[in-house]
Design brief:
This protein is mainly beta. It folds into two domains: 59 residues, 2-Layer Sandwich (Wheat Germ Agglutinin (Isolectin 2), domain 1), CATH 3.30.60; 130 residues, C2 domain (Immunoglobulin-like, Sandwich). It has three helices and eleven strands, in the order αβββββββαβββαβ. Strands 6-3-10-9 form a four-stranded antiparallel β-sheet, with no helix packed on it. The chain has a four-stranded antiparallel β-sheet with strand order 5-4-7-8, with no helix packed on it. A three-stranded antiparallel β-sheet has the order 1-2-11, covered by helices on one side. A hairpin with a 2-residue loop joins strand 4 and strand 5. The radius of gyration is 20 Å and the shape is elongated. It starts with a helix and ends with a strand.
């Protein structure tokens, strides 16, 4: 009875009065706990309610000091951003070690334990790259990455992240600039991520 009461309260009195939610029935595919009562969501399907408007907006602005991977002494960089199972990518900037993208992506996100994976790549279309793709499923050269825990994000941030290695053999340099905004789409006032995150019992 307690969990139904908490869910009803959340619908009548939104968790944040400045950020309206859009709840829909939702099926959890792994063990999940209710944000309000912290109890386990039981059942095979349609275990709870989830807001479809809560998420993270990220703008990949630019990068500086990337390592050169091509024989010409430059690279053709692009960026992939992944949150959960959703991955998106920027366009490729040819022959530039200090590229500017200014591309914005929105990710629906409901788990504060998710990790945002931002990786920079050098696009290659030669025969060697195509052969490597068949062997490793990666045709492009790795230029660096930054891994960001969603639980560390709050509000609006404009940050330079130093690119890190993926393995000890990785050769990386430079940094990538990201504008991250934890937001409700269409709202001017942004709530903290832990306020927006909502997964409730049905």
């Amino acid at each position: 009875m307690h969990v139904y009461k908490k869910a009803l309260q959340a619908l009548i009195y939104p968790i944040s009065s400045t950020t309206p939610h859009d709840f829909h029935l939702w099926t959890a595919t792994s063990p999940t706990y209710c944000y309000e009562c912290e109890g386990l969501l039981w059942g095979i399907a349609r275990q709870g309610l989830r807001c479809s408007e809560c998420g993270i907006a990220i703008t990949v602005i630019c990068a500086q000091g990337l390592i050169a991977k091509d024989k010409s002494g430059t690279s053709d960089p692009y960026v992939t951003v992944q949150v959960g199972k959703t991955k998106k990518r920027t366009r490729t900037i040819t022959q530039d070690l200090n590229p500017v993208w200014n591309e914005k992506f929105f990710f629906e996100c409901h788990n504060s334990f998710e990790r945002m994976k931002v990786r920079v790549w050098d696009e290659d279309n030669d025969f060697k790259s195509k052969l490597r793709q068949k062997l490793t499923r990666e045709s492009d050269d790795f230029l660096g990455q930054t891994l960001i825990d969603v639980r560390t994000l709050s509000g609006e941030m404009d940050v330079w992240y130093n690119l890190e290695k993926r393995t000890d053999k990785s050769a990386v340099s430079g940094a990538v600039r990201l504008h991250i905004n934890v937001e409700i789409k269409g709202e001017e006032k942004v709530a903290s991520y832990h306020i927006q995150y909502t997964c409730l019992h049905e």
